[in-house]
Amino acid sequence: NWTMVNIAEESIEAVRAQVGDRRAICGLSGGVDSAVAAALVQRAIGDKLTCVYVDHGLMRKGESEQVEKDFVAATGVNLKVVDAEERFLDALAGVTDPEEKRKIIGREFIRVFEAAAREISADGDVEFLVQGTLYPDVVESGGGTGTANIKSHHNVGGLPDDLQFELIEPLRTLFKDEVRALGEQLGLPGEIVWRQPFPGPGLGIRIIGAVDRERLDLLREADAIAREELTRAGLDRDVWQFPVVLLADVRSVGVQGDGRTYGHPIVLRPVSSEDAMTADWSRLPYELLERISTRITNEVREVNRVVVDITSKPPGTIEWE
Ligand code: XMP
């Protein structure tokens, strides 16, 4: 794809000119935007870029490994991984209110990222922060170049004054489909390039009720089954997002084997959409829904019921929280 080759080369040149021999950091979220931005800047300045991946323990099955292994293998990027699961789970203990969860996750994320940025800066000043801002983000925020705040996949504010960076935003003129094409051009793994949008607070807002490790593990298993079967059916690129939600505070009666069970329901929420502002529930084939339901109830302990959400947005939102 010639256009993409040109866009990639021009952007790499522009970043090189902007940064010179100074240093930059980039926060990876597991999403396509930050991954493509980081890969591009890595091509431009190599080891002078350090990426930070905060593992908050709220990711889906295999996603942290995708960043820590596959992304690094594909790009050769310098990566600092911060395992912060325990810290996030402690902070979230007992919290059920969705906005409260978001606030806590956002706050902890900033703190952990800040500490990592300070550590990286300690051996030589870091002057730039790479962000995966896309053209629609630029338009939405009124078009100005912002001061350095971590791109709000957590919808939270900026870094403290002593950690001010100049921004590198190599995707500022691009739309999502162009970013994916660029990601392919840069040799990124398909699982990252074609990843569906995933909220910053992760599975934390897909557990209705308080978040703990056991519940996260249940949800991760159910979610992995749904994703695997969707992909196997060849429909993963037709569905905009497919939240799988654990109703952790609800129990219903079931019968499994020769016993009565009293377990949790899982909600499947596949939607089609253009921009997440409105959405329609996806009419997935019955056979696919049946396979997902059978596998989840057979393979996921404590889950004895699977339901499908057939609400459009509006009035429903895509996420349950
Ligand atoms: P709703 O649920 O409002 O979601 O229909 C619209 C889109 O936004 C995503 N979403 C979030 N993304 N932080 C994020 O980065 C959040 O707190 C958050 N909440 C919802 C959601 O996945 C969908 O794509």
UniProtKB/TrEMBL annotation:
Residues bound to ATP: S29, G30, G31, V32, D33, S34, A35
Keywords noted in UniProt: ATP-binding, Glutamine amidotransferase, GMP biosynthesis, Ligase, Nucleotide-binding, Purine biosynthesis
Annotated pathway: Purine metabolism; GMP biosynthesis; GMP from XMP (L-Gln route): step 1/1
Superkingdom assignment: Bacteria
Domain GMPS ATP-PPase: 2-195
Reaction(s) this enzyme catalyzes, per UniProt: XMP + L-glutamine + ATP + H2O = GMP + L-glutamate + AMP + diphosphate + 2 H(+)
EC number: 6.3.5.2
Recorded coiled-coil stretches: none
Complex formation: Homodimer.
Biological role: Catalyzes the synthesis of GMP from XMP.
Annotated protein name in UniProt: GMP synthase [glutamine-hydrolyzing]
Classification of source organism: Bacteria, Bacillati, Actinomycetota, Actinomycetes, Streptosporangiales
Gene that produces this protein: guaA
Boundaries of the shown chain within the full protein: 196 to 516 of 516
